[in-house]
Amino acid sequence: MLRRRLNRLFGGDEKRVDSRTIYVGNRPCPATETFIPPKFCDNRIVSSKYTIWNFLPKNLFEQFRRIANFYFLIIFLVQVIVDTPTSPVTSGLPLFFVITVTAIKQGYEDWLRHKADSEVNKYPVRVLEDGQPARKDSEKIKVGDIVEVVEDETFPCDLILLQSSRDDDTCFVTTASLDGESNHKTHYTVPDMEKDLQSLSATIECEQPQPDLYKFVGRMHIYKPEHDPAVRSLGPENLLLKGATLKNTKKIYGVAVYTGMETKMALNYQGKSQKRSAVEKSINAFLLVYLCILISKAVVCTTLKYVWQSQDGQDEPWYNQKTEKEKGTILYVKMFTDFLSFMVLFNFIIPVSMYVTVEMQKFLGSFFITWDRDFFDPEIEEGALVNTSDLNEELGQVEYVFTDKTGTLTQNNMEFIECCIDGFQYTAFSSELDSFCVTDGPVSTFQEKAGREKEELFLRALCLCHTVQVKEAGPDELGGDQVDGPASEPLRPAEQRGFIASSPDEVALVKGAMRYGFTFLGLESKTMKIKNWQNDVEEYELLHVLNFDPVRRRMSVIVRSKSGDTLLFCKGADSSIFPRVRPEEVERIRMHVQRSATEGYRTLCVAYKRLSVDEYAAADAGLREARLALQDREEKLMAVYNQVETAMSLIGATAVEDRLQEEAAQTMEALQGAGMKVWVLTGDKMETAKSTCYACRLFRRSTELLELTVRTLESGGRRREEMLHDLLFDFHRKAVQDAPPARAGVNRSWSSANPEYGFIVDGAALALVMNPSPDTNCSRYRSLFLQICQNCTAVLCCRMAPLQKAQIVKMVKNSKGSPITLSIGDGANDVSMILEAHVGIGVKGKEGRQAVRNSDYAIPKLKHLRKLLLAHGHLYYIRIAHLVQYFFYKNLCFILPQFLYQFFCGCSQQPLYDAAYLTMYNICFTSMPILAYSLLEQQIAIEVLLDNATLYRDIAKNAMLRWGPFLYWTVLAVFQGLIFFFGVKYLFSNPALQDNGQVFGNWSYGTIVFTVLVFTVTLKLALDTRHWTWINHFVIWGSLAFYVVFSFFWGGIIWPFLKQQRLYFVFFNMLSSVSAWLVIILLIVLSLLPDILLGVLRKPRGPHTQQVARLLARPSLLQPSSSGACL
C-alpha cells in the first residue's frame, strides 16, 4: 500500500485528471514522438494487513485500543512502578496471555493472506515482447503489456480484448469469482483491430480505476502511417476483469489497463463497516458498572485505612516503625499510591479473559452453522457460509426481516406460461394450428385470432430482442442452459442446443418462442439467424443493442432484414413501455398484463418500430458519438435511447412464472409466529408482488390492505402531496389509533378476532414520504409512515430501487427502541439493504453471488432461514448471554472475599490469595468449563425450537442481558462471596484445627476460601448444564482435578526461582484437617442451595409452557439433538 501511494505521489498525475493514457505494448505512438513511460502501480496483489516489520507495533496498537486491554496495561504499569501488595505477574501474565493468543490468531490469518497473495503474484503468465510470448510472474505485468491467455485460465489483470481465436471476434468468460455468476458472458474485441499485434501502434484513453464491475468508459486511438488516427469506443463489453476465467475460447490477447490493487476485483474487496452486536453493548455497560464497583471499593478501603491510622498508636506501632523516606512522603501522594494499590488488589473484578473466551466462542461456534447437514443443498452441492462470526448471537434477536422477492421468496426459475398478442391470449401448451390456440378469447367480446402477421412479428421480437447466445451441446449436455442454476428439462432432438444467458427469463422467452415454432439459431458475425414456421432461416444484421438497465427497465435491439428494413424491437416492464406506444394499443394489452400479474406471473411488454433511413442515421450517429464520450457516457447514451424508443407500436405481452421457493410459506409463517415482522422489498409490480405475499401467507384473505401507491395518490384528482397527507392520517387512524393494544406473546393466528392490516407502498410514494416538497413536514410524514408500518402484520414495498431498500431498512433500524433488523436477498440489487441491516443474509441464488459476498451469512435456500434463526440463533444467544453473566458473577465471587478481608487486616492491602491463584483463576481453573458450555449447551432440543416458534419470543429484546438478570447474578455473587468469607471465618473461631494443636495462618485461610470458590463456581455451571457431552464432563471434572493437582505441586515442592514460598505445604496441612474438609463441603452445598431450590420449586413461566408440557409425553423430542453437528 505504501508503494502504491508513493507511486501516485511521485510517479504520475492520476490524482489530477479523470482519465489515463495507456500505450499499447508500451511503444510510443506515433513512433516519432518522445516516449516517456507513464507511472502506474505494479500487478502485485496485497490483501494482507501486516508485514514482518510492522506486525508487532501495529498489532499491539490495535489490541490496546480495546478498553479492557488498555486498563490492564495501566494496572500492570502501576504494579511495576508503585509498591503494590501483589506481584506484577498477577496482572501481567493474564494480559500477556490474552495479547499473545489474539496476536497468534491474527498473525496466522494474515499469514494465510500472504500465502494466497504469493500464489497469485507468482503465477506464470505469457506477455508479448517483440512479437514473441515471454513467460514472467504475474506481479511483473505492467500497464500497457499485451498478455496472452488460453482457455480455462484466469485473467491476471484487467485487460482490453484485442484479439480472439474465435471467428466472430468474441470470447466467453465466467465471473464466478467476482460476482458468483456461473453463466457465460460474451465479450467483444475492439472493432477493426489489426491481426498483427506486433505492428500495432495505438493508445487507450480510459477512466481512472473505480470499483463498479459493470462500468467502463474508454476509447482507443489506432495510428497508421499516412492516415488519420482511427478512434474506437471501449465499454464493459471489451473489458476482461481480473479473476474472471476464459471459456470456450482457445486463446485471446489483451492489453493491460488496470493492474494490481487498481483492478476492479481489488477495489471491490475493501472492508465492510464493522457491525456490533447488542451483546457487545451490554458487555460495555456491565463493565462500567463493575468499574464503578472497583473504584468504590478502592475509595472505601483507602478512606478506612487512614481513619484507622488516625487513631492513637495505629499510625506507627512499635513493631512497624516508619522509614525516613516514608516520613518524608507527602500525605496526598501517599493516599493516591494507596488508592492505586487497592485498585491493583481488586482489579480482578474486571474479567479481561472474557474477551478471549467470547472471541473463541464466536469463532468456534460459527463452524456449527457451516457443519449443519440440514443446510446442505444437493442441487448446488453447497452448504451455509459464515462470513463473520461476530453476529452469531444477533441471529437470536431479530425483530424485523426484510426480504427480496425474486430469487428469495421465489425460485428465479422462469417458465413461459402464456402470451397476449394484440389483445388475444395464447397458452404455451396448445398444439392446434401451428402451436397457437385462443384459450380465453380476446379481451374484447369477439372470438378470433390476432392475425398471422402480428403473430409472426411478435415471435420474431422474442427471437431477436435479447442477448442470448447459442452453444451447441455435446452428448452429455443436451439441452443444458448456461444460466445461474440447474439446467431445465431436455429439449426435443431438433432443439438440442444450450443457451448462454445472463438472465433466466431471457432463456424462458426464447424457449417460449421455440414452443410456438420460431427457433433462435444463434449470432454469427453480427448476423442473427432464426428459423420460422416454414423451417426457413431468416437472417438479420444486428446493428445496435440498447442494453437493459434498472432505471429504463427495458432493452432494445436495432436489426436490418434482408429486404433492407430497419427494425427496432423493445421489451420491458409495462410502466416503461406503455408511455412510449400509442394509447389506443395499450387498452388491448393492459387487462391481460394486470390479470397475469394478479396470478403471480412476471410480465413483459413487447413493442416494435420501423426506422426510416433518416431516423436510423440519426440514432446511429448519436449512439456512436455517445459511446466515444469519456465524460457522462451513461447519461448521453440514455438520452439517445429515450429518443429512439418513442412512438413504438405495441405488439403484445408475455407471462413468465417464477415459482415459490420450497417451504417459503411455512418459513414466513414460522418467522411471524416467532414475533418477527416481515417486510417484502422488491422491484416488481404491485400485483405480482401482492400475489406472492398471499401465496407466502404474509397476507391473508381477511387482511385489510392499506395501499399507498401512485394509483391511490392520483385517484382523488388532487395534488399528490395533499392525497399523501390525507391517506397517511387515514391509515394512521385505522392501524394505530383505533387498533386494540397488542398483547405480547400472542400468536397471529390466535388473535384473528382483531383486524389485520397489510401495508403496500411503491417507490414513487416512498420518495414523496422520504423527500417531500419543501412546504411539507418531512419528519411528521416519516413518523406517521413508520408507525403505520410497525402496526401492520406485513408490509409490501414494490417498485423499489436498491437505494430505497436501504432507506427503508435504515429508517426502521434507527427508530425508537433500535430494533434488530435482518435483510435477506440473492441479487446485486439487494446488497445495499444487506449491508445496512444489523444482520445480512445472502441466498446462493441465480442472480449472482454479490449478495453472498457482501452478507454476514449465506444459505442455499430461504427455508434454511427458519433453522438459522429459531434454532442456531436461539441457542447462540442463550449461550453467550450465560457466558457474559457467568464471567462477571465468578469474578465478583472471587474478589469480594478479598475486599472483606481488608476490614480484618486494618486495610493494610494484605492479599487473601496467593499470587499463583490470582494469576491462574481466570486462565486455567475456570475458563474451559464455561467455554465448553457456551459451545455445546442446548437447554431446549432443536426439534422443539423448530416446532414452537413462540419460544423465540422469550429471548427477544436482549432478555437475558437486561439489568434484571444482571442484578440477579450480582446478588447471587455477593451472597456466595459472603458465604465463602464468613463461613471460613467461623471455622477459624476454633483455635485448634490441626491434630498437633497448631492453628492455621492467613494463607491457609485464603486457600480454604479459594478452594470453596473454585468448586462452587464450577459446580454452579454443572447445575446449569442441560446437555451433557463427554467434553463437558472432561472440562468440568478435569478443571477441578487440575486445581487440586496444581495446589499439591505448587505447595509441595521448593521452587528455586521463588524468593518466598507462601503456600509451602499449606494445601497438605489444610486437607489434613477434618474440620476444613467439613467446612469446604458445607459451604459449597450452602452456596449452591439457592440454585438447587430454584430449580426444584420454580414453576415454568412463559407462553410456551403448555406446549413444552405437551411435549413431555414424547421424551425423545426433549433429548438434545444430534442434528447440525452437535449444536
Automatic annotation (TrEMBL):
<feature type="transmembrane region" description="Helical">
    <location>
        <begin position="339"/>
        <end position="358"/>
    </location>
</feature>
<feature type="binding site">
    <location>
        <position position="826"/>
    </location>
    <ligand>
        <name>Mg(2+)</name>
    </ligand>
</feature>
<feature type="transmembrane region" description="Helical">
    <location>
        <begin position="64"/>
        <end position="82"/>
    </location>
</feature>
<keyword id="KW-0460">Magnesium</keyword>
<keyword id="KW-0967">Endosome</keyword>
<keyword id="KW-0812">Transmembrane</keyword>
<dbReference type="GO" id="GO:0055037">
    <property type="term" value="C:recycling endosome"/>
</dbReference>
<feature type="binding site">
    <location>
        <position position="405"/>
    </location>
    <ligand>
        <name>ATP</name>
    </ligand>
</feature>
<feature type="active site" description="4-aspartylphosphate intermediate">
    <location>
        <position position="404"/>
    </location>
</feature>
<feature type="binding site">
    <location>
        <position position="799"/>
    </location>
    <ligand>
        <name>ATP</name>
    </ligand>
</feature>
<keyword id="KW-0479">Metal-binding</keyword>
<feature type="binding site">
    <location>
        <position position="548"/>
    </location>
    <ligand>
        <name>ATP</name>
    </ligand>
</feature>
<dbReference type="InterPro" id="IPR001757">
    <property type="entry name" value="P_typ_ATPase"/>
</dbReference>
<feature type="binding site">
    <location>
        <position position="571"/>
    </location>
    <ligand>
        <name>ATP</name>
    </ligand>
</feature>
<keyword id="KW-1133">Transmembrane helix</keyword>
<keyword id="KW-0445">Lipid transport</keyword>
<dbReference type="InterPro" id="IPR032631">
    <property type="entry name" value="P-type_ATPase_N"/>
</dbReference>
<dbReference type="Pfam" id="PF16209">
    <property type="entry name" value="PhoLip_ATPase_N"/>
</dbReference>
<comment type="similarity">
    <text>Belongs to the cation transport ATPase (P-type) (TC 3.A.3) family. Type IV subfamily.</text>
</comment>
<feature type="binding site">
    <location>
        <position position="830"/>
    </location>
    <ligand>
        <name>ATP</name>
    </ligand>
</feature>
<keyword id="KW-1003">Cell membrane</keyword>
<feature type="binding site">
    <location>
        <position position="404"/>
    </location>
    <ligand>
        <name>ATP</name>
    </ligand>
</feature>
<feature type="binding site">
    <location>
        <position position="683"/>
    </location>
    <ligand>
        <name>ATP</name>
    </ligand>
</feature>
<dbReference type="InterPro" id="IPR023299">
    <property type="entry name" value="ATPase_P-typ_cyto_dom_N"/>
</dbReference>
<dbReference type="InterPro" id="IPR008250">
    <property type="entry name" value="ATPase_P-typ_transduc_dom_A_sf"/>
</dbReference>
<keyword id="KW-0813">Transport</keyword>
<dbReference type="GO" id="GO:0005789">
    <property type="term" value="C:endoplasmic reticulum membrane"/>
</dbReference>
<feature type="transmembrane region" description="Helical">
    <location>
        <begin position="1003"/>
        <end position="1023"/>
    </location>
</feature>
<dbReference type="GO" id="GO:0005886">
    <property type="term" value="C:plasma membrane"/>
</dbReference>
<dbReference type="GO" id="GO:0045332">
    <property type="term" value="P:phospholipid translocation"/>
</dbReference>
<dbReference type="InterPro" id="IPR032630">
    <property type="entry name" value="P_typ_ATPase_c"/>
</dbReference>
<feature type="binding site">
    <location>
        <position position="829"/>
    </location>
    <ligand>
        <name>ATP</name>
    </ligand>
</feature>
<dbReference type="GO" id="GO:0005769">
    <property type="term" value="C:early endosome"/>
</dbReference>
<dbReference type="InterPro" id="IPR006539">
    <property type="entry name" value="P-type_ATPase_IV"/>
</dbReference>
<dbReference type="InterPro" id="IPR036412">
    <property type="entry name" value="HAD-like_sf"/>
</dbReference>
<feature type="binding site">
    <location>
        <position position="830"/>
    </location>
    <ligand>
        <name>Mg(2+)</name>
    </ligand>
</feature>
<dbReference type="InterPro" id="IPR023214">
    <property type="entry name" value="HAD_sf"/>
</dbReference>
<dbReference type="InterPro" id="IPR044492">
    <property type="entry name" value="P_typ_ATPase_HD_dom"/>
</dbReference>
<feature type="binding site">
    <location>
        <position position="506"/>
    </location>
    <ligand>
        <name>ATP</name>
    </ligand>
</feature>
<feature type="domain" description="P-type ATPase N-terminal">
    <location>
        <begin position="38"/>
        <end position="91"/>
    </location>
</feature>
<dbReference type="GO" id="GO:0005524">
    <property type="term" value="F:ATP binding"/>
</dbReference>
<feature type="binding site">
    <location>
        <position position="805"/>
    </location>
    <ligand>
        <name>ATP</name>
    </ligand>
</feature>
